[in-house]
Design goal:
14 helices; 21 strands; 5-stranded antiparallel beta sheet; alpha/beta; about 30% helix
């Protein structure tokens, strides 16, 4: 089947960025079709919402934008960041609240109510969704799809790609599209994991602490200093505190953990001096107030170091980041050199891209989803302007 409707606007990818691009195109009066390889839309969004859907972070626009690296998203986030994200969610009937850290969540916490309301609004706007349509090629403006009905071809006037990055492949973000675009001369920055854990070869005595959290620590990598919780897992160190410094670690930095950031080394020495002579090292660490899992970390990585040094500047032996497909997000993707300011692909007219396909990186905490929505809106609006030509 070949669809050659001149007003057809095609969106490939039914995640947050693709749905936002489709919404903007529908507002312009276009005939919008969304195609996605999976049986249902926004699977990664739903997974993210299982532990509480963090849609954005309430902070000044300048500091919000500064959290991003790679592609310059300043102009895009300048028009759609935390404030606009909240307004958009409330327009869907989704009330939100801001936590003590500035992170913004729907009151229902989950992603499913938001997604249901959004899909209903898109359906009312006439947006058609075709699931199990996997994009497999682009030839002279024709987009080829492998579908349950066999090979299908669409010839839209404009197309927005929103195919995600290369982590969590089982949810749809497998990065397979990179090869298709590279064949067309699009520059692809190699994938790297972002917001990921780091592998550790644990000794046997650490097994009983797997799943335990280290709370209230400060993590330092170079000049970056973060406070946060992290988890001792069978695979290594994971969790928000580790994710916050993961980019610096990936770039070669050394992790130093302060297990008692509110207590100085001199205070620790003074407290140790008041303990009974001959007490074991483990007992001394416990009397300092360290949890059993924190004591175990000290014994694992700094058994012979002075206690105050081990507690204030613990250096875990990390064996590199966990695999790409385990990462929450990715760095890499379509290079800035291959994009116009409208997120149109150079050399491929009328084809736009958005979301995690683009070469940008950000920490967790609301930044990831906001950028997906913001770039989807930007690309959708640009594609709508092109349709009007």
């Amino acid at each position: 089947m070949v669809n050659t409707e001149k007003s057809l606007a095609l969106v490939i990818g039914a995640g947050p960025a693709g749905l936002m691009a489709a919404e903007e195109l529908a507002k312009s009066g276009a005939e919008v079709v969304i195609c996605d390889a999976k049986p249902s839309p926004a699977r990664k969004l739903l997974m993210a919402g299982k532990s509480g859907l963090n849609i954005t972070k309430d902070e000044e626009r300048e500091s919000f934008i500064a959290a991003y690296s790679g592609l310059n998203l300043g102009p895009i986030l300048g028009s759609f960041a935390a404030r606009e994200m909240v307004i958009w969610a409330r327009a869907l009937g989704i009330d939100v609240f801001t936590g003590s850290s500035g992170r913004v969540f729907p009151k229902a916490m989950k992603a499913s109510p938001l997604l249901r309301a959004w899909l209903s609004r898109l359906n009312a706007a006439g947006v058609e969704m075709r699931m199990r349509w996997r994009w497999v090629g682009l030839e002279d403006g024709a987009y080829l799809f492998d579908t349950p009905l066999g090979m299908q071809v669409l010839r839209p006037k404009v197309c927005v790609l929103a195919l995600g990055g290369a982590s969590w492949a089982r949810l749809g973000s497998d990065g397979a599209w990179a090869g298709l675009l590279a064949q067309k001369g699009v520059e692809i920055t190699p994938w790297q994991p972002a917001n990921m854990g780091f592998a550790v070869d644990w000794s046997a005595h650490m097994a009983r602490h797997f799943g335990a959290a280290i709370k209230g620590a400060a993590l330092r990598v170079g000049t970056q200093n973060e406070r946060g919780e992290f988890i001792i897992s069978q695979r290594g160190l994971e969790g928000g505190g580790i994710y916050a410094v993961s980019r610096a670690l990936r770039l070669g930095g050394t992790l130093k953990i302060d297990l008692m950031p509110d207590t100085s080394a001199d205070e620790i020495i003074d407290r140790l001096g008041k303990m009974k002579h001959g007490e074991t090292r483990v007992n001394r660490l416990r009397k300092l107030g360290l949890a059993p899992q924190a004591v175990a970390l000290v014994q694992e990585f700094a058994r012979d170091a002075p206690i105050e040094q081990a507690v204030k500047s613990l250096r875990p032996r990390l064996n590199g980041p966990r695999p790409l497909d385990e990462a929450i997000s990715v760095a890499g993707g379509i290079s800035a050199n291959s994009l116009t300011a409208d997120l149109e692909l150079r050399g491929l007219p009328n084809l736009f891209a958005c979301g995690e396909m683009l070469d940008w990186e950000a920490p967790t905490g609301g930044y990831l989803l906001t950028a997906a929505w913001a770039t989807g809106q930007w690309a959708g609006q640009a594609a709508a302007r092109r349709l009007a030509w």
